[in-house]
């Protein structure tokens, strides 16, 4: 596994119970290994407000040496001096994204072997695979694939895999056991104590 995928925190203001900057700082104190700015969905900031929050979160990551990824939005990648971008199957084509950002890390979401077959996954640096468990953080989440789904994708690709979807302290063991990285929204952003929440996910 690529080191930064070990405990990869994803969040936007819509996921937080308190100030997103404090949430990110506390998550970093707990030991997250990467951060993805995913300002998206109901109650998410847009336009200049989104960019400004992104800049503040980016600054925090830079100060602590945490890789900073942008979800989907290729328009703000340069402005936020992102280290990488994460795209889904319905976003801009990965071939175009790779041409635009030859030197950045690119993550690609894949849910099934079928999606793998129709994707230029070889252009990505890692695959985000899930939802491994049931999630409430994504309205249009695909069907749950379980640990078997993770194993199926791992068996077909030479890329590092980070699992996503419904991962929390009670089920994380199964994900760690198959050697996948872990990405999490609500188990950290929805916690009153993000630092302790991360510590419980880190082993
Ligand atoms: N993609 C697949 S599931 C998911 C995304 C963005 C949401 C994960 O959030 P949580 O709260 O960790 O289940
Ligand atoms: Mg997307």
UniProtKB/TrEMBL annotation:
<feature type="binding site">
    <location>
        <position position="138"/>
    </location>
    <ligand>
        <name>4-amino-2-methyl-5-(diphosphooxymethyl)pyrimidine</name>
    </ligand>
</feature>
<dbReference type="GO" id="GO:0009228">
    <property type="term" value="P:thiamine biosynthetic process"/>
</dbReference>
<dbReference type="InterPro" id="IPR022998">
    <property type="entry name" value="ThiamineP_synth_TenI"/>
</dbReference>
<feature type="binding site">
    <location>
        <position position="166"/>
    </location>
    <ligand>
        <name>2-[(2R,5Z)-2-carboxy-4-methylthiazol-5(2H)-ylidene]ethyl phosphate</name>
    </ligand>
</feature>
<feature type="binding site">
    <location>
        <begin position="185"/>
        <end position="186"/>
    </location>
    <ligand>
        <name>2-[(2R,5Z)-2-carboxy-4-methylthiazol-5(2H)-ylidene]ethyl phosphate</name>
    </ligand>
</feature>
<comment type="pathway">
    <text>Cofactor biosynthesis; thiamine diphosphate biosynthesis; thiamine phosphate from 4-amino-2-methyl-5-diphosphomethylpyrimidine and 4-methyl-5-(2-phosphoethyl)-thiazole: step 1/1.</text>
</comment>
<dbReference type="InterPro" id="IPR036206">
    <property type="entry name" value="ThiamineP_synth_sf"/>
</dbReference>
<keyword id="KW-0784">Thiamine biosynthesis</keyword>
<feature type="binding site">
    <location>
        <position position="71"/>
    </location>
    <ligand>
        <name>4-amino-2-methyl-5-(diphosphooxymethyl)pyrimidine</name>
    </ligand>
</feature>
<dbReference type="Pfam" id="PF02581">
    <property type="entry name" value="TMP-TENI"/>
</dbReference>
<dbReference type="GO" id="GO:0004789">
    <property type="term" value="F:thiamine-phosphate diphosphorylase activity"/>
</dbReference>
<comment type="similarity">
    <text>Belongs to the thiamine-phosphate synthase family.</text>
</comment>
<feature type="binding site">
    <location>
        <position position="91"/>
    </location>
    <ligand>
        <name>Mg(2+)</name>
    </ligand>
</feature>
<dbReference type="GO" id="GO:0005737">
    <property type="term" value="C:cytoplasm"/>
</dbReference>
<feature type="binding site">
    <location>
        <begin position="135"/>
        <end position="137"/>
    </location>
    <ligand>
        <name>2-[(2R,5Z)-2-carboxy-4-methylthiazol-5(2H)-ylidene]ethyl phosphate</name>
    </ligand>
</feature>
<protein>
    <recommendedName>
        <fullName>Thiamine-phosphate synthase</fullName>
        <ecNumber>2.5.1.3</ecNumber>
    </recommendedName>
</protein>
<feature type="domain" description="Thiamine phosphate synthase/TenI">
    <location>
        <begin position="8"/>
        <end position="188"/>
    </location>
</feature>
<feature type="binding site">
    <location>
        <position position="109"/>
    </location>
    <ligand>
        <name>4-amino-2-methyl-5-(diphosphooxymethyl)pyrimidine</name>
    </ligand>
</feature>
<keyword id="KW-0479">Metal-binding</keyword>
<dbReference type="GO" id="GO:0009229">
    <property type="term" value="P:thiamine diphosphate biosynthetic process"/>
</dbReference>
<dbReference type="InterPro" id="IPR013785">
    <property type="entry name" value="Aldolase_TIM"/>
</dbReference>
<keyword id="KW-0808">Transferase</keyword>
<comment type="function">
    <text>Condenses 4-methyl-5-(beta-hydroxyethyl)thiazole monophosphate (THZ-P) and 2-methyl-4-amino-5-hydroxymethyl pyrimidine pyrophosphate (HMP-PP) to form thiamine monophosphate (TMP).</text>
</comment>
<dbReference type="GO" id="GO:0000287">
    <property type="term" value="F:magnesium ion binding"/>
</dbReference>
<feature type="binding site">
    <location>
        <position position="72"/>
    </location>
    <ligand>
        <name>Mg(2+)</name>
    </ligand>
</feature>
<keyword id="KW-0460">Magnesium</keyword>
<dbReference type="InterPro" id="IPR034291">
    <property type="entry name" value="TMP_synthase"/>
</dbReference>
<feature type="binding site">
    <location>
        <begin position="36"/>
        <end position="40"/>
    </location>
    <ligand>
        <name>4-amino-2-methyl-5-(diphosphooxymethyl)pyrimidine</name>
    </ligand>
</feature>
């Amino acid at each position: 596994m690529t080191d930064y995928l070990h405990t990869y925190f994803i969040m936007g203001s819509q996921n937080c119970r308190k100030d997103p900057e404090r949430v990110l700082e506390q998550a970093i104190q707990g030991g997250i290994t990467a951060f993805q700015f995913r300002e998206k969905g109901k109650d998410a900031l847009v336009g200049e407000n989104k960019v400004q929050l992104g800049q503040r979160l980016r600054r925090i990551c830079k100060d602590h040496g945490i890789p900073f990824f942008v979800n989907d939005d290729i328009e703000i990648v340069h402005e936020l001096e992102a280290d990488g971008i994460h795209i889904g199957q319905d976003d801009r084509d990965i071939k175009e994204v790779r041409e635009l950002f030859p030197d950045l890390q690119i993550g690609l979401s894949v849910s099934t072997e079928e999606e793998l077959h129709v994707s230029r996954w070889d252009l990505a640096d890692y695959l985000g695979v899930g939802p491994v468990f049931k999630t409430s953080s994504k309205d249009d989440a695909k069907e749950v694939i379980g640990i078997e789904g993770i194993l199926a994708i791992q068996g077909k690709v030479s890329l590092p895999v980070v699992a996503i979807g419904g991962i929390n302290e009670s089920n994380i063991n199964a994900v760690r056991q198959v050697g996948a990285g872990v990405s999490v929204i609500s188990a950290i952003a929805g916690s009153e104590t993000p630092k302790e929440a991360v510590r419980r996910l880190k082993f």
